Amino acid sequence: MTDASNGALEGIRVLDLSRVLAGPLATMYLGDLGADVIKIEPPAGDETRAWVPPVDARGVSTYFTGVNRNKRGLRINLTRDEDREIVLQLAAEADVLVENFRPGVMERFGLDYESLSAGNPGLVYCSITGFGSGAGRELAGFDLLAQAQSGLMSVTGAPDGEPMKVGVALVDVLAGQNAVIGILSALRARERTRRGQRVEISLLSAALSGLANQSSSTVVTGQSPRRHGNAHPSIAPYQMYPTADGDLVIAVGNDRQFEALCRELGSPDLHEDPRFAANGARVAHRAELETVLVALLTSASAGEWAERLTARGVPAGTVNTIAQGLELAEKVELEPVVTIATPEGDARSVANPIRLSGTPVRYLLPPPDAEDHQTWNPRREP
């Protein structure tokens, strides 16, 4: 049975003291899932409010609106005793607190986990840092630095080109998602123990974990992988190829798919060539295989090949723009965009990727305009 009125996290209050991307993304997901999220911003506002253009229909930075829906807003100057007292009152009743200040800052304000949990033992306190709270506590926590220093950039880009960052702040996104996992796990543990705990997430750890097979191979072999551009270090063909009118991605994951690829390309004997008969051989002879495939693929368009290969059971697709990616999501009925109506104009954002059959995500509040704390009621329902 679906209960559209109550989210999965109904009754959970989240105090969001984070800014920019990783923390706000995590708290937005919690808000989507039904939690009551109170976003605390400094007097000048979250830094991303000034990261323009582009802006939405309300004139607000799309960077800010992309990770701050389903939150109530409040601007607080933590250097003022009366403002800090408001945060302390809110923290005393919160289930979750999320912050991404540099280690040591929250201690100076008396808002660290030890101080707050003394009066609220059930508090789940999530800290997001760049390089942890130990020896790396003084290092700046920016996504670009984490991409560079984790090794992510070393495996991104053309083999003969310079190291390249990913086209989005991916490490921040990974850290935000890890924060959600940690917070939900701590809430589940609290049901048994009646006590909260501290959840620690670092950008560096998120990046190293997110490197998956690349970091795993380094741990096992002691050798750092090199850049392969759009190719895969352990699978072939698994990369982008030129066609008659554009680029095509082919992602062959096994020998059966490779045989189907060869047949659709009009070269059915290719899969019997000893250089290409098995995946390991194809990886070893990647350059030769690429030459053969490029010659065959130039006979038709990327769209035509994508349709024909997909029909054969071969994973293939065109290289889309983000707009085309959204159109594809619409076509396959994923409902990728949500709209929240406001007096100033519609607030549109990308939908939460989580689908729950019984307690679906909710989109109730647009990204907040900060309110005057003198008239703000923390008990008000959203």
Automatic annotation (TrEMBL):
Its EC number is 2.8.3.-. Keywords: Transferase. The keyword Transferase applies. Residues 361-382 are annotated as: Disordered. InterPro entries: CoA-transferase_III_domain, CoA-Trfase_fam_III, CoA-Trfase_III_dom3_sf, CoA-Trfase_III_dom_1_sf. GO terms for molecular function: transferase activity. This is CoA transferase. It comes from Microbacterium bandirmense. The lineage of its organism: Bacteria, Bacillati, Actinomycetota, Actinomycetes, Micrococcales.
